[in-house]
């Protein structure tokens, strides 16, 4: 067995074992820049033929007639560079906005061919982490998760600017409301709730937050006055507000890393545009490519079964 074959076996075994340990195939595939289709092919080959099944076969000469057309390949490269989308998200985006039907494996082959199968270093420094089973409410407004994202900017005169993004996300639809404030306190948390009530097209039954100082007594009783229940998650358990935490990572990867701070007015205008895009136009992975607003419309029409 040559060194190349040994390398193939070590690499694929490492990926298969990591997915088995943490129980999360999606995160493992994203970390290593491979599609789930490829992962399951490796897993199946390993179960059938052991380590020999993990050795890459000698590739056949490429049939250029079957190759992804150049215009589509350019769109795939553009989405990878600009948004760091994975193969599945690129497939959903092309189908939705360009009416282009292409398989996830074809997208992955384009990324490999262009040496873009692995994400940039700054997007994958985190470990896949432990696996937790996620639960999702079926009724819009039944549970709304609220949290604060700390923002750091450098102004044009080189001064450090600190701001706070208050975020609310509906558990059932993933519809979000976002607002940035200069101070991190209960007064702004209360203002934000008023904004959320105005933005969400459904009644809010329960708001769930961590135990931060901005969500204490005044905030709690204000929610009660609005007829909204307020519950705290367990201390040191951010996973219990996992949807809002995950949405903050999306903000970082798809919004803030491309943003140049030019002032608070401009910042809030751009955030409002991002909120509209997220709710109305961005294909959501948790909804198999549907937007949060489309899921809301489906639930209101009864097309998605509700739970009591």
Secondary-structure map:
Layout (H helix, E strand, L loop, with lengths): L2 H20 L2 H8 L3 H14 L20 H14 L3 H12 L5 H10 L30 E11 L5 E11 L5 E6 L4 H14 L6 E4 L7 H9 L3 E4 L9 H13 L9 H17 L11 H9 L8
Parallel strand pairs: 1-4, 4-5
Antiparallel strand pairs: 1-2, 2-3
Helix pairs in contact: 1-2, 5-6, 7-8
Describe the protein in words:
The protein has 308 residues and is of the alpha/beta class. The chain has three domains: 1-58; 61-115; 144-300, 2-Layer Sandwich (Nucleotidyltransferase, domain 5), CATH 3.30.420. It is built from eleven helices and five strands; from the N terminus they run H-H-H-H-H-H-E-E-E-H-E-H-E-H-H-H. The chain has a five-stranded mixed β-sheet with strand order 3-2-1-4-5, with helices on both faces. Helix 1 runs antiparallel to helix 2. The longest helix is centred in the first third of the chain and has 20 residues, at 3-22. The termini are far apart. 27% of the residues are buried.
Features:
3 domains, Nucleotidyltransferase, domain 5, single chain, five-stranded mixed beta sheet, 45% helix, 308 residues, 5 strands, alpha/beta, disordered C terminus, 11 helices
């Amino acid at each position: 067995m040559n060194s190349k074959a040994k390398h193939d076996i070590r690499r694929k075994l490492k990926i298969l074992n990591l997915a088995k340990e943490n129980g999360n195939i999606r995160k493992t595939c994203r970390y290593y820049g491979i599609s789930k289709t490829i992962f399951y092919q490796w897993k199946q080959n390993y179960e059938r033929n052991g380590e020999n099944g993990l050795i890459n076969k000698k590739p056949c000469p490429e049939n250029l007639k079957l190759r992804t057309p150049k215009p589509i390949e350019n769109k795939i490269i553009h989405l990878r560079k600009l948004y760091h989308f994975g193969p599945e998200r690129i497939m959903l985006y092309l189908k939705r906005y360009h009416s282009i039907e292409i398989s996830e494996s074809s997208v992955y082959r384009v990324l490999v061919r262009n040496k873009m199968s692995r994400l940039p270093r700054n997007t994958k420094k985190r470990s896949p982490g432990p696996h937790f089973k996620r639960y999702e409410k079926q009724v819009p407004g039944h549970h709304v998760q609220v949290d604060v994202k700390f923002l750091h900017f450098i102004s044009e005169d080189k001064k450090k600017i600190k701001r706070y993004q208050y975020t609310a996300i509906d558990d059932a639809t993933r519809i979000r409301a976002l607002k940035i404030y200069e101070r991190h306190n209960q007064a702004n948390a209360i203002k934000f709730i008023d904004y959320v009530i105005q933005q969400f097209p459904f009644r809010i039954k329960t708001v769930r937050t961590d135990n931060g100082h901005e969500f204490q007594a005044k905030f709690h009783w204000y929610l009660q006055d609005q007829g909204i229940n307020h519950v705290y998650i367990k201390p040191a358990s951010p996973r219990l507000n996992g949807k809002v935490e995950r949405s903050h990572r999306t903000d970082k990867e798809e919004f803030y890393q491309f943003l140049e701070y030019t002032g608070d007015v401009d910042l809030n205008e751009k955030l409002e545009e991002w909120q509209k895009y997220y709710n109305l136009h961005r294909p959501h992975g948790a909804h198999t490519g549907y937007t949060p607003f489309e899921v809301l419309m489906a639930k209101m029409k009864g097309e998605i079964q509700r739970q009591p």
